[in-house]
Amino acid sequence: MEFTREIYWNVGHGVSTLLPMYLLTIAAIAVLARGAIQRIKVYRQGQVLNRFDQREIRLKELMKGVFLQSKVVRVKGPGFAHGLFFWGFGLLFIGTCLIVIQADFTDLFFDIKFLKGNFYLLFSIVLDVAGLVAIIMLAGLFVRRYLIRPKDLNSKFDDIVMHGLLFAILISGFVIEGARMAVTEMDTSLAFWSPVGLLFAKAFSSLDENTLRSLHLYNWWFHFALVLAFIVAIPFTKFRHIFTTSANYFFTDLGPRGALKTLDMEDDAAETFGVSRVGELTWKDIFDADACTLCKRCDDRCPAHNTDKPLSPMNVVNRIGEVAFTDPEANLIDTVEKDALWSCTTCFACQDICPASIEHVGKIIDMRRNLVLMEGEFPGEEVMTAMENTEVNGNPLGMGYATRGDWAEGLGVKTLDEDPDVDILYFVGCYASFDKRNIKIAKAFITLCQAAGVKVGILGKQEKCCGEPMRKMGNEYLYQTMATEMIELIQGYGVKKVITTCPHCFNTLDKDYRDLGFDIEVESYTVYLERLLQESRLKLKPEQLNCTYHDSCYLGRHNDIYDAPRRLIEAAGGKIVEMERNRSESFCCSAGGGRILAEEKLGSRINIKRVQMAAETS
């Protein structure tokens, strides 16, 4: 006996079956295509953006994201459940394609059958197990969504349709298999290779053959109708994420992580700066709304959202989509709400964890730019004062620029104006220049460099704010003014390497300044000191210390620097007790996004919540 089965058993393989089946399939695909074209027209309201370069890298991102579900499974529980469901359902789809290929092409035209023998046995058991796994995982996701629903996980009619349709497709498939097996395989060794189908067959064993054939035939067409409904529903429900989320892996930003678009502030033809209408966004910004699955991972990790502020990264993305599809001329800022926009710390937690490669931060900054550059609005008077201080004194603290280098007195370090022949330029930053606690960091860094025989120079009173807080607050003009001045100054001295102790200065000089022509190597002090340690140029005398470590958002998520600071602490004798939220899951300190300039008036304080997390390590 050859292991195989008759495809289209009981249904027939003639014109009466194939003609309506293929005509209906073509019609369903046509509806899908029409719906997709309508949505593409909406995406095209956005500005041009090239996300088709570096195609080899993009294809790798697509394959990894889709077939390995690499971003989805980062969250255990629902992530693994979705991954297993995807793989199970995917195997069923492949199995269905193999059946169609054999029955309607290779066997029909070339008399070639490949679903037989040992391959058929493997085919049978793999598809049965895949179907069972898909049902169990779908049930688990259903329970999570409707019975033990996490806070703020909103369910829509889409979700009911999707769960119901998928359940019906999977279960009706096993009903068809069970009815067929009850007639053709009940007492054969082949039945054991379809264990789930066998269970259904045994459940139907009391029915006579005519009843089983009727059950099989009606369910076959019912199952087919469900599949058609699934195809038709794709562009009109969250099923569309099958394509849009997958495509978003291809469209992912391959530039420096978290880097913002640099505006041409000298463009005389520009009628507006920033974004207040859908048409001022890029097509990718609109497309992101269709890629979103409302999983709320971004909200779960957003420090603003988790301290009762009005920001929901998920809502920002989806409100853009709602406006794009319903009222493209509506004011986006009013729709998203200003307090939500000002609450963002640009910590990148939302974007880092998103399983759909959605880019939240740039959208928020673009709307802030419009508020600042076109409307002259800031989140508070204290922010406006900080901007004015920066324009006058080169720092947002209002300290006299002439005293910027006073912290270094007695350390034996010179300014580049005095001696430009140095190993490194230490770009100190505003807070390490003026804030008493941060000055200790600057002095310690100089001491360590001197101990390693490194000649350090500073800019002293010539140094000004790198412009990062201004840029993140939306004041692109002031940022570029500061940045251009610093770039010309630093490059004019012929510096070979710049080191920063401020994560925000590091990110700005290393990424943002590149768009303005800055071409000097920039390193974080943690990476630099750790290398000095490895080269045995810096020798430490360890002293036992129990501590915890806070991963700065702009060292960690923005620049993937996690190990260097930990190795430095361990080399100094420190024993680190990690906070629950550490590394890529670290919780923001609240100073990013220019929020260091603003009072935290809404909700509870982000920094207090982070300190409480540190206290929990004892």
Which short descriptors sum up this protein?
618 residues; mainly alpha; 5-stranded parallel sheet; two-stranded parallel sheet; 24 helices; 7 strands; 53% helix; 4% strand; elongated
Protein described:
The protein is mainly alpha-helical and 618 residues long. Helices cover 53% and strands 4% of the residues. It has helices spanning 15-43, 55-67, 78-110, 117-146, 157-184, 195-203, 209-233, 241-250, 283-291, 297-301, 313-326, 332-336, 338-343, 349-353, 361-375, 381-393, 430-434, 436-451, 468-472, 476-492, 503-510, 525-534, 563-571, 606-615, and strands spanning 414-415, 424-427, 456-458, 497-500, 521-524, 545-547, 574-576. The strands form two sheets. Strands 1-3-2-4-5 form a five-stranded parallel β-sheet. It has a two-stranded parallel sheet with strand order 6-7. Strand 4 (497-500), helix 21 and strand 5 (521-524) form a beta-alpha-beta unit. Helix 5 (157-184) packs antiparallel against helix 7 (209-233) and helix 9 (283-291) packs across helix 11 (313-326). It is elongated. The model has no long low-confidence stretch (mean pLDDT 96).
Rg of Cα set: 30 Å
How are the strands of the biggest sheet laid out side by side?
1-3-2-4-5
Strand content: under 5%
Write down the overall geometry. elongated
User: What oligomeric state is this?
Assistant: single chain
Residue windows where pLDDT falls under 50 for at least 5 positions: none
Q: Main beta sheet, described?
A: 5 strands, parallel
User: Whole-Å distance between the termini?
Assistant: 70 Å
Count of alpha and pi helical runs: 24
Residues in helices, as a percent range: 40-55%
User: How many beta-strand segments?
Assistant: 7
Counting helices, strands and paired strands, the structural category is mainly alpha
| Mean of residue pLDDT values | 96
